[in-house]
């Protein structure tokens, strides 16, 4: 297990990057603690796999250092870093049995035969592969092969970190849910440092102790699932985490008052924004904290439609020309056309050019 430190790290796929826009990974400095379970979350193309490959040693960064427990491993190979990596698509030996596939990493490192057998059977039981241990891998389904690939990463007890690059892509939804729980349980039992790349917020939030949210080559927030929901540090985090995502409304601010169109609301903190000239100022509020009332209460809004998603209903409204979503309590009555909306003042966030403004008490 290792403490992973990224120091002034940045990467460009160009031979001579000239400015910030040329970097696939913008400069970052972060520490990921030993034994932590981290998820790298973000849309395709945001830099997740690039960062994972730099941590694993498959890619040398353009600048900066990667340190494991304080030791500079920036130019070390994956083997020297002593990591296990599980890729998006299965990497196994088709000609070998399932047992031999799982045993290979241990035999390659000269583990005693009894230890090999014990660990192989433990991992096989966890992944429900016990009845297939004697079968050759070539005739198995794609999801079974990926379970073997997962097992090859999990079977080693001596790794500094286990890195997962969207490992459940080819797994069917029900099995995906089971495997996420099993990976979480394995982490609790063995306390491996784990880094899990995904674009799926459900995977990230159910697996990780802390989620690293990436957007356009930057880490925009690292936090627990609760922190990402309660206090998004960037409008992208608010949009990407949650279903539906956070409402983000253009506004202007005077002290502790925010104005959306002509509608005024009180912010939990005051804000001095002389530096905001020419910048985009926005108000963020999650749909869970928007209340829909009759037209004689709250700020007048037009009800566009109601979506029933089974567990709850989502009202889509227009407020001062901007779209607002609200999650409706079960059994609530909603006007047919015009409505009023109000926001929980304690749950309002202010953003300047996408970044959270903390304000003052």
Please describe the biggest sheet, giving its number of strands, its sense, and whether it closes into a barrel.
6 strands, mixed
Helix content: 10-25%
Q: What is the CA-CA span between the terminal residues? A: 41 Å
Secondary structure tally: strands: 21
Question: Which regions are unreliable across 5 or more consecutive residues at pLDDT < 50?
Answer: none
Report the CATH superfamily of the largest domain.
Answer: P-loop containing nucleotide triphosphate hydrolases
Strand content: 25-35%
Q: What would CATH call the architecture of the largest domain?
A: 3-Layer(aba) Sandwich
Order of helices and strands: EEEHEEHEHHHEHEHEEHHEEEEEEEEEEE
Strand order of the largest sheet: 6-7-8-3-9-10
Radius of gyration: 24 Å
Structural class: alpha+beta
GO molecular function: ATP binding
Family: Belongs to the ABC transporter superfamily.
Protein name: ABC transporter ATP-binding protein
Keywords: ATP-binding, Cell membrane, Membrane, Nucleotide-binding, Transport
Structure summarized in a few sentences:
With 361 residues, the protein is an alpha+beta fold. It is built from nine helices and 21 strands.
Task: Please characterize this protein's 3D structure.
The strands form 5 sheets. The protein has a 6-stranded mixed β-sheet, sandwiched between helices. A 5-stranded antiparallel β-sheet has the order 15-19-16-17-18, with no helix packed on it. It folds into 2 domains: 4-233, P-loop containing nucleotide triphosphate hydrolases (Rossmann fold), CATH 3.40.50.300; 247-357, Beta Barrel (OB fold (Dihydrolipoamide Acetyltransferase, E2P)), CATH 2.40.50. The protein has 9 helices and 21 strands. The longest helix has 18 residues, at 173-190. With 361 residues, the protein is α+β, with helices and mostly antiparallel strands. It has helices at residues 48-56, 78-81, 98-108, 113-126, 142-154, 173-190, 201-207, 225-230, 235-240, and strands at residues 4-11, 25-32, 37-41, 63-68, 71-72, 83-86, 161-165, 194-198, 210-215, 218-223, 247-250, 252-260, 263-271, 281-285, 290-293, 299-308, 313-319, 322-328, 338-343, 349-352, 355-357. Helix 3 packs across helix 4 and helix 3 packs parallel to helix 5. A hairpin with a 2-residue loop joins strand 12 (252-260) and strand 13.
